[in-house]
């Protein structure tokens, strides 16, 4: 017989397992993939997103301050233009 190790594993170890054991193995694999995804992809991106959101807020605040300063300069320019 020329069978592969995988086929031997399936025939001798996996197929004789009960349905509950097979479902448990499947759920364990899905859970493992979910945990790996969370820690390898989602969590680092979540931290990066939080950092970028903080940068956006800081830049928006700087823009508001600059807008107010420019508005103040415009008022001052109108005042001094009308000054004799």
Overview of this protein structure:
It contains 2 helices and no strands. The chain has 84 residues and is an all-alpha fold. The longest helix is centred in the middle third of the chain and has 63 residues. The model has no long low-confidence stretch (mean pLDDT 85).
In short:
The protein is mainly α and 84 residues long. The protein is built from two helices and no strands. The protein has one domain.
What tags apply to this protein structure?
single chain; 84 residues; mainly alpha; 87% helix
Give the end-to-end Cα distance, rounded to a whole number of Å: 109 Å
Radius of gyration: 33 Å
Bin the strand percentage.
under 5%
Topology, number of strands: 0
Q: Which sheet architecture does the biggest sheet show?
A: none
Helix amount? over 70%
Note the topology:
Layout: H1 5-14, H2 19-81
């Amino acid at each position: 017989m020329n069978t592969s190790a995988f086929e031997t594993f399936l025939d001798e170890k996996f197929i004789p397992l009960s349905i509950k054991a097979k479902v448990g193995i499947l759920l364990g694999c899905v859970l493992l993939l979910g945990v790996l995804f969370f820690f390898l992809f989602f969590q680092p991106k979540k931290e990066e997103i939080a950092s970028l959101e903080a940068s956006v807020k800081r830049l928006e605040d700087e823009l508001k301050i600059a807008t107010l300063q420019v508005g103040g300069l415009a008022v001052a320019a109108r005042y001094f233009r009308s000054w004799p």
